[in-house]
Amino acid sequence: MKKNLKMVIILTFLLFLYSSICAISYAQNISTDIANSVFRLHVIANSDEEKDQNLKYIVRDQLLNYMNSICGNCKSKEEAISIVQENKDSFEQIAIDTIKAQGYNYSVNINIGNFEFPTKNYGDISLPAGYYDALRVEIGEAKGQNWWCVMFPPLCFVDISSGVVPNESKEMLENNLSEEEFALVSSQSNNEIQFKFKLLEFFANNGLLTAKK
């Protein structure tokens, strides 16, 4: 009897271990595929004081206007990143000029790299937690709350009140993802997809998803 119980415990543990490995592998692959299809914007305020938070949004709006003017016709993430890299100094100068125009003298640090992001909703599109290529803008001491959006496909201009992402943006995203991956980010009603989405967030939050090399 004890021998059978021991065998059941061992088999249960092995099944759990196998399921965990499969889940981690699944989460890593899905997160990487989604991350490979989007380019994000990350703006960090100087502090959490109201004035610094308001400044963050003003800087964000100016950067998005510029981004839209130079990348409005981009057809791929790689194209968008290439254009941003070529115009990195312009992004920095726009941020600096905007800050000065508002009466502040904060420094600005801009980097294009691979950064960790939490789960975020953009209208009726959601992106899982994980590591994404992004343009990071740090204002002053960069100790305030963050603001995130997706520069490509262009989800930054989503009307949050209506909660609807433009069809053109969805089509760009859908064209670069598998059917299951697109369902993961666009459907909030499917219980199976909800479960997989939570898996991605769990693994990312516990350090089991790593940045792309």
Largest sheet: 4 strands, mixed
Give the overall pLDDT as a whole number: 78
When the domains are counted, the total is: 1
The proportion of residues in beta strands is 15-25%
Helix segment count?
7
Q: Which strands sit side by side, in order, in the main sheet? A: 2-5-1-6
**Shape from CA axes?**
elongated
Instruction: Please bin the fraction of helical residues.
Output: 40-55%
Radius of gyration: 20 Å
- Poorly predicted tracts of residues: none
Report the order of strands and helices.
Answer: HEHHHEEEEEHHH
Furnish the topology, listing elements before pairings.
Elements: H1 2-35, E1 39-44, H2 50-71, H3 77-86, H4 88-101, E2 108-117, E3 120-122, E4 125-127, E5 130-139, E6 146-152, H5 167-175, H6 179-186, H7 191-205
Parallel strand pairs: 1-5
Antiparallel strand pairs: 1-6, 2-5, 3-4
Helix pairs in contact: 1-7, 2-4
Protein described:
The chain is an alpha+beta fold. It has helices spanning 2-35, 50-71, 77-86, 88-101, 167-175, 179-186, 191-205, and strands at residues 39-44, 108-117, 120-122, 125-127, 130-139, 146-152. It has one domain. 53% of the residues lie in helices and 18% in strands. The strands form two sheets. Strands 2-5-1-6 form a four-stranded mixed β-sheet, sandwiched between helices. It has a two-stranded antiparallel sheet with strand order 3-4. Helix 1 (2-35) packs across helix 7 and helix 2 runs antiparallel to helix 4. The protein is elongated and about 75 Å long.
